[in-house]
Amino acid sequence: MSHANSPGRRERIANLGYDYLAQPREAVARCNLCGESEFVVLTHRDRYGYPAEAHACRHCGLVFLNPRMTAEAYGRFYDGVYRPLVSAFHGRQIDAHTIQGEQREYAVERAGFLRPFLSREDLHSMLDIGGSTGVVAHHFAREFALEGTLIDPAPLEVAQARSLGLETITGLVEEHDFGRRRFDVVIICQTVDHLLDVAGTLARVRQLLSDDGVLFVDIVDFRAAYLRNWSVEDAVKIDHPYYLTEPTMAAYLRGSGFEIMRADYAADHLHVSYACRPAADPSEARPDPASVERLLSEVRFVQNTQR
Ligand SMILES: [Zn+2]
Q1: Which long-range contacts (CB under 8 A, 24 or more apart) does 74-81 make?
Q2: Domain-wise residue ranges, the chain
Q3: CATH number corresponding to 100-226+239-287
Q4: Which residues have beta carbons under 5 A from ligand 1 (an ion)?
Q5: In the chain, which residues have pLDDT < 50?
Q6: pLDDT at 3
């Protein structure tokens, strides 16, 4: 695997002319998961070579970019920079069109994981948050006889999703007014790491999910990302404000009123998926302090050991 310092990659990224430091950014003063403010700076650049710092909360182990771009700057980033940047990084064209095959494979795998929980006749409606071109929502809707609704901020991708017969909303779940609507199934696929406010979004999702509904969400496991490359810097990228781990994601879910029914290490060894249901009573959100110590010492180990 080549790294950010390989000449071809460095040149392709430089040719995009994206000036990260010129983007409006804001400091994160409080941890989005536990509310504390004592942080450890883990890294000073990301996998593209941009000077983005990843911080870890000393109290709960949540890892996040700090400072990070404003919502408006992220809007512009997704509009014209994100896909070209990922393409430059990998050295091949990656866009809404080329990811369709990958998305279909993903949809089939995740449907397999969810089948024990979605094979119920009382589930009718599904909301896909950040569903892009709708490949996954379309597959799930057919597979489990659900009426699919998709919400995503990218107009071109939403138009593709609409052509698949899904109800579509162009926007953000935190901002859209759903009125009294509830959904029996909510799916958040390869999206949670891109959010600006994970706690706020999950709280919103809890309101939108019917009381006996099912939530699917998956994360890029930060530990898997740095262990596979044996580089913490290469596991950080400006497109992800958050770097979740099993302890921090489980805490987010518990704290937002969900109970994990099953977790799944995806076949790619990178993602971790969760099937959840509303919890009878919300429980303590904070991860075990020992998990924070383990994370920090593992980061130091990877940073200072040749593989
Ligand atoms: Zn915290």
Answers
A1: 74/196, 75/153, 76/23, 77/23, 77/238, 77/239, 78/153, 78/154, 79/154, 81/16, 81/18
A2: 100-226+239-287
A3: 3.40.50.150
A4: 31, 33-34, 36, 57, 59-60, 62
A5: 1-2
A6: 57
